[in-house]
Amino acid sequence: MSATTIARAWMVRRADGLCLGFTDHDRALRFGGVEFAPEYGMTARVLVQGTGLSVDNSEAVGALSADAISERDILAGRWDGAELKLWDVDWRDVAQRRLVFAGSLAEVSRANGAFRAELRGLAEPLNAARGRVFHPRCSARLGDGKCRFALVGEDYRAEIAVEEVEDGRVFRFASFPAYEQGWFERGVMSVLDGGAEGLSAAVKNDRALPGGQREIELWQSFGIAPVVGDVVAITAGCDKRAATCRLKFNNFMNFRGFPHLPNEDWLMAPGAGRNG
Fold it and tell me: Looking at the domain 157-235, which fold is it?
């Protein structure tokens, strides 16, 4: 492989299976069942690779293209976490290639007609916390395999068409099913149809207004805002307290916290931990 005939080839595969190839060569390259197209302006910053378990770092930059990585898909978060591989390739003979990076994209952003994404190496998951957390509140996520609670039925899930939206973050409904105020706080709003279909966001506030009206405020606006008429599903939230698990969800048998664990004040109390 000659230094004068080396090109870089990128393969990006989204979670939904869409796979795209890019190259900095002036002609398309093909290998591994992927065509690496030259016309999208994909480039990379200096690749920093460490030994051992240190995380590889780099940054991908490219021009937005309606038929490749579109601004709409970036706003919807559809490229976040996509699998990515990078090769050095001899463009005269693509069988002569070397894999130099394998990992995933972090959050993809866009500015001034271009996208930008930090790359995360294969060792990145090793930075995640492991093991059981001893805390009075539950360590499970509502509805996951540890919680085992099924968020189905009208008691814990409401489907309703959008009637009014402000800044893509505050939703108001003139007529809403009768739920306690705050029932959906810490829950999730998911878009079921329209241009934002498939997007989800966490609920910050759930306010019951006079006359059966409701206001749902999200922590962060959708990348693509739902419009009036789009149907959303809102699921109940959990504050991870033992009382909430028992009274709101009747799921205390699966509670993953330690509600009787002494608090920090107990550790400072005179005589704490002494015998007799």
Answer: Elongation Factor Tu (Ef-tu); domain 3 (2.40.30)
